[in-house]
Amino acid sequence: MGRDRTIWPKQDPAGKTRRRWDRRKVDRLPEDQVCLIRKMIVITAAEEKHLSSDMYYKYEQLYSRPFITPGSDIPENLLNLSHSFGYDCRRRANLQLLGDRTVLFIAGQLVILFDVSTKYQRYIRSCSGSGIGSIGVHPSQEYFIVGEKGNKPILIVYEYPSLKAYRILKDGAQRGFSSVNFNSDGSLLASLGCIPDYMLTVWNWRQEEVLLRCKAISQEVYKVSFSPYNPELLISSGSGHIKFWKMASTFTGLKLEGLIGHFGKTAATDIEDYIELPDGKVVSGTNWGNLLLWNGNSIKAELCSKGGQCCHAGVVQPFALEDGQLMTIGSDGVIRGWDFETIDNAESSSENSKFEMEPMNEMVVGRHVCLSSIVKSSQPDSTVWFAQDSNGAIWKLDLSFTYATPDPECLLSFHAGPIQGLDVSKKSHLMATTALDRSVRVFDFLAKTELISTRFNQGGTSLHWAPLSVNHSGGLLVTGFEDGVVRLLELFDTKGMHNNQADAHIRLKQAFKPHNGPVTSVAFEGNGKILATGSSDCTVFFFTVGEKYEPIGFVRVPGPVKMLEWSPLSHHENRLLILCQNGHIVEVPCPEHTTLKPKKSYELLELPRRSFSFKSIKSQIKREEDIARRPVFQVKQQKEQEEHQVIQEEKLEEDLPPIFISNPHSPLHCGFYSQPGHFWLSMGGVDSGFLYHCKFSENQDEDQKKHQDEPFDYLTVLNADDDPICSVTFNSNRQLMLCGMHSGSIRVYPLDPNTQTLTSMGEYWELSIHDSSYGHLWHICCSFDDQFVLTAGDDGNIFSFELLPHDELEKDLEKKRAMVPSPSVSLENEALAQDIDDPAADSIEMVKQKLEKDHQSREAEKKKSEKRGRLAAIRSSFKKLLEENLDLPEHSRLTIAELQLDDCFQEQFEKEKSQKIKEVQEQMSWKEQHSHIALKKLQDWFKGSLETNIVSVLGIGTHHRVSTYHIPALSSAEVQQQSSYREANSNETAQVERRKSRDHTVKNSSETDEEYMPHSLVIRSSGIKLADRQIERLRKAAEKAEQARAKIDKRKQEWDQFYTEKPMKNCEDPRDVQAICEAKENIGDLKLKTDKNFTVPKHLRMSADRKKAEITDLEGNIRQKQIEMNTEIVALRDSKLLLLSKLRAEAKQFQRFQSLLPSHLQHHQPRLPTIHPQEIKDKMAQCTPTILERYRVLREQRFRCTEPEDQEGGISLLKQLENEMEEMEGVGDMSELSEATEGKEDPKGKEPVQLSKEENNFMYTQDSLLEKMEKMVHQFDKEHLMCLQKVQMLDCRLKLGKLRQLTLYQELILLKEVDKSENSLQERLDTHVKEENNLMSKLEECKEELELKYKDITKIQQKEKAVTKAFQASLGDDNKFEEYLTKVFKRKVKRAKEEKPGEEEEDEDDFDNYENWDDDDDWDPMDGEAFVEECPSGCEPKLFAHILQLRERRLDLEERQTEEKKSADVLEKERDSLVKKLKPVKIGRRSAEDELDRVNREKQQMMNQLDVVVPLRVHQIGFDIAVQTPPDLGSALLLKKTELQRLQERVKQLEVEKKQQTEIYTQARQQHIRLIQERKDMNTEIQLLQKRCNQLMMRRFGREVDLEILQTLSGNRTVEELKQEKLLQEAAYSKEIKQWDVKVEKAREALMEVIRSNTERLLCLNTLFEQKQELEHKLDARQKKIGKQLQDSTRQTDKKEILSLQELVRKQAQQVENLSREISLLSHKGACTLQTSQAKLPPLAPLNNRTVQKHIRKTGTLFLNSNDRKADK
Fold it and tell me: Helices in 655-728 by DSSP H: which ranges?
């Protein structure tokens, strides 16, 4: 996350800068920040200026004026701006609105205020002369701001409508401003600089002050704006980024903090515009047409249309939030409105980051419209907007989106993009222009209006107005286009003509295509007889001028053509100067169409030419200028220092600039003739700054591509090293040379009319008019009367200037409008010229080449035909020779081998034959594969369209027929739809099962968690063994405790179950609730859907999708029934086939027995049933070759008999073929019967003969076979009849299903009409429900967390009480340090907070913490640096340390409790906010439900109007009243008879149930009262028992205890082991104590011995003190006698002795102290330690004199006394 910050001094609420800085904070800052703050203090300490509100600047002193060469006589008003005809429509946000009818836009160096109603223009010039970067309008419409371009540009605020310069803001950017914008109240201004600084500045513009400043980013920025809802927020966007800014207040003052937007998974895009929503979200556009919803600095969702389609085609920009919808514009020329609530609540799914929605409103502005910005009218409640069209227009739009909304109105129309061609009429004040926007426009610059505009299929690239010598009326335009087409356009006045709808009209006179690339230049020869066209395809084409322009030919040039210049009439030769962009110049003479007649191609190869290739000489010129300056410099140096002249010359030679030639070559901009063979050139790039005078070299035989020519002369163009001349024109008398510069300025050079050269070009007049960055001025020309100058640049702007002062011009021009050429007399009778619309059409040369190629092809075919004729003649003569050879005798004949000239010819022929066969097979392989695929498709279409073929089963003994159903095969869409429905149902079922399993799992896991509770195990050593009696006692106690625990657990479970079953206070019996629901749905009056107040239940609501699913289910059921019946019929057919096989087998057996019987005993064989073709159609799908051959024969017969067959004839032919196949099948089936019956005689008429036994057996077998066959046939007929009955019953049900299906389709159509509104309402309801569910879930989570926090707080409070109890228990009773320790325990200690790893804080946050320290009042009075906690004397250190631990524990608990309370407060606030949010959501949900219920009610009423067909019989119609049958049954109610009977019985049941429910209610009421009284009595009894129980516990245990714990107490083996271990350790300790008593006694005796020795030493020490005193007395007496001399000599010695004595006394005192300490230790611990730790005393130093002994004696006395006192103690 990127942050950009700018520091500024703090400001108080009054807006004044705070000059007092916190010294402590400043000292902690880094050195660079301290320096910055000091500078800021100095700056802010200065006296602030205050600008008056009525102060204005003089505009005359600000705007840029023309540059005039100093000392020249050129007037300043040489050119005066007349009108602007262009509009820089490709510039961003180049449309603003002032008032309701004045639009503001930038045009080059001007800001134009255009009145829409009067078409009047007012201009404000740039002050810098470098252009204007951006404009903005104040919210009050009283001011507008202009951001300049240039070096250190300024911002100027103008007052409207006076146009006075009100404020000037400086130092806002380095090179220009890309965007300016006011905040919502207009008090602040934000500006954005362009490259290179991209500085974002916030201004107090009324006082011309900079408030904040920061670099926005390091790439191009398009827009910056304030938030309309929060004045401290800003947003900027640009190339591949969006950034969110905040004006933050810190200890250093206001600063700008920027957060760059992260695109995440979304592709980065340029953001042209954005809009902020009221809740802080931002919606921005993209390059691909979707919207991005930003939440913070990340993308929340990408918004698109339904189906994943883009919101707009191309770049999209949101621009307004109006009437609950977000308005967007796009480069597709469409304005759409989107629902604001849907966008605000948009959420992207995890699978797809796009959120789909549909626009609410839409307006298509027009074709070829590309909207880039839009502004709204300032009128209140206005819906009028003005839109900028990047394709060259300004539109007025009404976005009310009502039926009365007017169509979009195009206010202004301009060229879009750079102007490619401009020329003026040679007869009138008319101007024609063209551009790549495919339009050609004609302007009347005298009337300042556009005369006519026409469009073509391709963009225009050049334009030339034909001279009067070509067209006497002056209305012919020659226009070149980017596809190489040249069009001759005729302009004429339409007055007096039929159907005149405008003042002028442009008519296509002729169109031809000479080039394959863009036409860059066209020019007429001086006499108007030849037209030359040049193109970027390096060709120049010539045409003859006449009624129809005929091509002459073309020449190729070494580069793309830049310009064509015919030699003036003053030259003796008529030549064309061709200037190429790469610096090549070619001159050709005017071609004569009578002498040059190209045949195969139009290329004029024989046309002579001269060439010139420009070679750079600029570096050489600079070098010569430098050399020319050196002599002057040398003269100065010689005067000052002559001896260093040689050295200086060498240095000058070394410093000369090198010769430099650019590679690639500099581009050529323009050129013109000076005299025959001489011409001037203006070059760009490194060769700019000069006009080069060139001539063609005499040696033209060299390769011009390698040879380069240098100019022979040049003229310096002042101040043009980086600003070359792009175009040059002269006025009619050549007194003025007008130049269009690369920087967009006009430069005018006065010339001497007496000279033809440019030597007089020196002084000049220059005015910046087009944009200095990209407004290169390529077109400049004068009017026919030299009174106007017209310019057009790459910025799309067209300006007209008056060459004379306006007053003088009005005197000269009496007309107010230009004269339009009159049409020709025969114009209306002339046919329209044919245009070339196809950009890929062939050029003239290509057509010529194709014609030549066709001619060559025809000639080749002619030669081929001649050769084929000769070969045919040779072949015929050869055949004759063969015939003559056959006529010869055999011995004279020539054999084939002899006739064959060579074997290799035969082999070659065979190879060619096989090769051709292979080629034919390869060629036919595709057709063969194509035929196979076509056949397969036909089979799939006719055979695959049915699920099964229709099979008909005929009865054997009856004429009944059973046929399968026609079941069409399901399409892939239907199969997918059914599978989707099945998947949806299975998903719902799976979700239910998954939910059940999850609940079951959670329940089991909870039960497991409750059952399993980990217990801490205490592992003890098994070294202690218990007695048997102890073990038995422990076992019994454990059993008893386990039984008690089981009883307690059982009782707890019973209580838990009881409490779970206990209903809440407001709870109702679920059985009653269910019964009430059933009663509401089923009991009472019959719920008629025709009732007006009928509310459709939620589970019965029908939608189009549900209805589709219902129709699909119905169709599936019908299909399933048909398939089942088809299966049964096919099974019946298969059984018939099996029966036939059995009957054939029986028939064969029957014939075998018949053959054994005599003829008179043989019975007639029954006729076997046959299989008809319709019964086995599914097995006859393949066509055999026999069938195909028969079809061919029938088809040929039909052709011979009648005319070619049509479709019906083909169908009848197929029927005839099918009948023949059936007859053939029948004949085949009967063949066996005919064979079996042949030769059989009729047994009738034969006399009976006595039969043998064998014959009787055969007869019996014969009769039984006949009977068996008859039974099988009868059984099949029976099954066939049953199947027929099923089919008839199914037909009846299917008809009802079809009727039901028809009704469902009608309902589906109705539902589809209503579904759109219902779906929107349902989505709204789903949104509210989802939001409510989310809020409810968050509320529940918040409540659960809050309960947990309260529980945690309670636990912490309990722990705190436990800590306090532990503290009191530690103190005990009557502790003398209780007050001090309580103070220590309750003291509040300031503890340092632990820093979390990875946590970093900024310096300013640290300073804030320092400030908070001063305000901290939690210190205890005891707290301070002087107070030190220490254990008081007499208090146990362990107790004190324990108290400190308890205090730390208490402080930890208090901190935890504080944190928990804070989090609980936060949760409470969150809960309250959620509750507040939930209320409006519930209201919205209820309103949505009511609206949805209303829509469903209306939908049900509409569905009730549908007619439903129900077939009924007469006996099914009944009436409750005894009347005759009414004629109309429309008001009748259709229901089942059983339902009517049930309702009648239900009336009686309800009366009985009503009485029963009344009795039940009375009993329940009485029981309720009784239960309430019993509950009160039980509560009173429970309180008494509880009180009695507490008294018994206090009497027995002294406190209240938990009886359950007492009951579950059992013998603890650990305790018993510990008791046993205690007894053993007591015995060991008593033994050890006895041993220590013996040791103590021994130590006491040793101590007495040490005391005795110490006493003797003390006595010795006392003696020494007495000797010391005596010596001191003697020394005093002796010192009185000694004189002063001895005193001086011995003073130093005495000092040393005194010091040594003092050191000795110190050591002795230390020894005494050590001895006293040892004595005290020995008195407590015994003398045993003394023996090992006793150290020997150091020996006493010998006494040198008496004085020393005296001092020792005194000191010894003192020590002795002190030691005696210690010993007494």
Answer: none
Chain centre to alpha carbon of residue 316: 13
Decide: helix, strand or coil at residue 764.
coil
**For residues 235 and 259, what is the distance between their CA atoms, to the nearest angstrom?**
10
The structure tokens listed for 1683 are 């004189």
Torsion angle defined by CA atoms of residues 1088, 1089, 1095 and 1101, in that order, rounded to the nearest 10 degrees = 130
Q: Does residue 749 contact residue 766 with C-beta atoms inside 8 Å?
A: no
Q: Of the ranges 907-911, 913-917, 1003-1007, which one carries the lowest mean pLDDT score? A: 1003-1007
Position 1649 scores a pLDDT of 87
| CA gap 461, 1487 in Å, rounded | 63
Show Cβ contacts of residue 139 under 8 Å, excluding neighbours closer than 6 positions.
Answer: 182, 184, 185, 186
Cα-Cα-Cα-Cα torsion 638, 643, 647, 651, nearest 10 degrees, comes to -20
Q: For 619-631, what is each residue's pLDDT tens digit?
A: 888 888 888 888 8
Q: What is the DSSP letter of 1250?
A: P
**Portion of the chain with pLDDT greater than 90, in percent:** 31
CA–CA dist 964, 1 (Å, integer): 74
- How many whole angstroms separate alpha carbon 294 and alpha carbon 260? 12
pLDDT at 56: 92
Task: Say which residues have a Cβ less than 8 Å from residue 237's Cβ, sequence separation at least 6.
Answer: 221, 222, 223, 243, 271, 272, 273, 274, 284
Residue 700 pLDDT > 80: no
User: Is residue 1731's pLDDT more than 50?
Assistant: no
pTM over 0.70: no
| Count of other CB atoms within 10 angstroms of residue 383 | 16
pLDDT of residue 401: 87
pLDDT in tens, 1321-1334: 888 888 888 888 88
Q: Which residues of 1034-1064 are buried (b: 16+ CB within 10 A; e: fewer)?
A: beeeeeebeebeeeeeeeeeeeeeeeeeeee
Say if CB 481 and CB 518 are below 8 A apart: yes
Long-range contacts at 1293-1297 (CB < 8 A, ≥ 24 apart): 1293/1121, 1294/1118, 1294/1121, 1294/1122, 1296/1511, 1297/1114, 1297/1117, 1297/1118
For residues 536 and 480, is the Cβ–Cβ distance under 8 A?
no
**Helix and strand tally (H, E) in the chain?**
25, 60
Q: Which residue has the tokens 């007049």?
A: 765
Confidence band for 1085, pLDDT divided at 50, 70 and 90: low
Range with the lowest mean pLDDT among 99-113, 516-530, 752-766, 1726-1740?
1726-1740
Contact assessment for residue 440 and residue 460, using Cβ atoms and an 8 Å cutoff = yes
E strand map for 955-1089: 961-963
Using pLDDT thresholds of 50, 70 and 90, give the confidence band for residue 1247.
very low
CA distance 551 to 543: 4
DSSP for residue 599: S
Output 1390-1396 pairs: Cβ under 8 A, ≥24 positions apart: 1390/1418, 1390/1419, 1390/1423, 1391/1451
* DSSP per position, 507-527: EEEEEE---SS-EEEEEE-TT
Query: 1211: how many CB neighbours lie within 10 A of its CB?
Result: 11
The residues pairing with 588 across neighbouring beta strands, listed in sequence order, are 576
Identify which of 352-366, 451-465, 1386-1400, 1701-1715 has the greatest average pLDDT. 451-465
Amino acid 1221: pLDDT:
58
Handedness of CA 877, 880, 886, 887 (dihedral sign): negative
Contact 1446, 1386 (CB under 8 A): no
Phi/psi class of residue 82: alpha, beta or left (left: φ > 0; alpha: ψ in -120 to 50)?
Answer: alpha
DSSP per position, 171-239? SS-SSBEEEEEE-TTSS-EEEEE-TTT-EEEEEETTTTEEEEEEE--SS-EEEEEE-SS-TTEEEEEET
What type of residue sits at position 1031? I
Strands (E) across 590-647 are located at 610-613
